[in-house]
Amino acid sequence: MASIRRRKPIEPSNTSVQKEEEEDEEEEDHSENKHRRKGDKKSKPKWSCVDNCCWMVGYICVTWWTLLFLYNVMPASLPLYVTEVITGPMPDSPGVKLRKEGLKAKHPVVFVPGIVTAGLELWEGHQCADGLFRKRLWGGTFGEVYKRPLCWVEHMSLDNETGLDPPGIRVRPVCGLVAADYFAPGYFVWAVLIANLAHIGYEEKTMYMASYDWRLSFQNTEVRDQTLSRIKSNIELMVEANGGNKAVIIPHSMGVLYFLHFMKWVEAPAPMGAGGGPDWCAKHIKAVVNIGGPFLGVPKAVAGLFSAEARDIAVARLLMACLKMSVNLHTGKS
């Protein structure tokens, strides 16, 4: 009887086992690489221009608020102290020098601001101007120009036919010395002169800001606001309250022309004038100190601006550069 032999189980070859192990390792490496790539994408997001802008705006805001905080926290005398350490003792202001020389207030002073330097405030407006009652539309921070530009333009514009306010809108000049002491924060107009006069004894009862609505024609300031009449009354009151000492008038820019109109108006007979008589100015005005008055009119001012006399003025150089650029664009020159 043939003997039955048991077959030995066939063992897998070493090569096939190695292949399976290599395939498993490759799959693991592939999956690990996928996870790494996903992790890299999550950890390193793409950087865009918007991100740069946001970071820049944030940096500027943080820096600004930090400097503003430090400015408000530090003592008020610190900037002056640092300036004196660097440049030496500060010289006395003109007002302090005059006070040391023994000068005191005598003649009342009237300021007449120029075009655009006097503030304008809202007394009545449309629905878009809610919350702006007696807030400045012109002068100050000019915040409403950015917040409500169309509403601002609507309220600052005049009626084309009457030359006065449109129906439902009343914009009036600011009263008092604050009307034109600063045009905008950090940009003074009359503030320094007022401060120097205060050193020798002047105060609000001996100084008067003849503010007017510079958008209107000279005669319309009297028709609508009686500005010329109020200037006349204030000068008469100040002269009488100061023992008969005549007033010194200091007009600036277009205020020079406005006060020339006032002097003609105050002596002219009614109803075109105030009927003050031909000697009213001689009785009430000591002197007129004009500052930058456009006596030759706008055409002469423009001609002077673009002449050789103004070649060293920075604004004139900029205007000339813009003019040359526009001419070159039209002529096709490079």
UniProtKB/TrEMBL annotation:
Compositionally biased region (Acidic residues): 20-30
Locations listed in the record: Membrane
Main location, first listed in the record: membrane
Membrane topology annotation: Single-pass membrane protein
Reaction it catalyzes: a glycerophospholipid + a 1,2-diacyl-sn-glycerol = a monoacylglycerophospholipid + a triacyl-sn-glycerol
Keyword NADP: no
E.C. number: 2.3.1.158
Ranges of compositional bias, category Basic residues: 33-45
Transmembrane segments: 53-74, 182-202
InterPro entries reported in the protein's UniProt record: AB_hydrolase_fold, LACT/PDAT_acylTrfase
A single cellular component GO annotation: membrane
Domain of life per record: Eukaryota
Name by which UniProt lists this protein: phospholipid:diacylglycerol acyltransferase
Organism: Salix viminalis (Common osier)
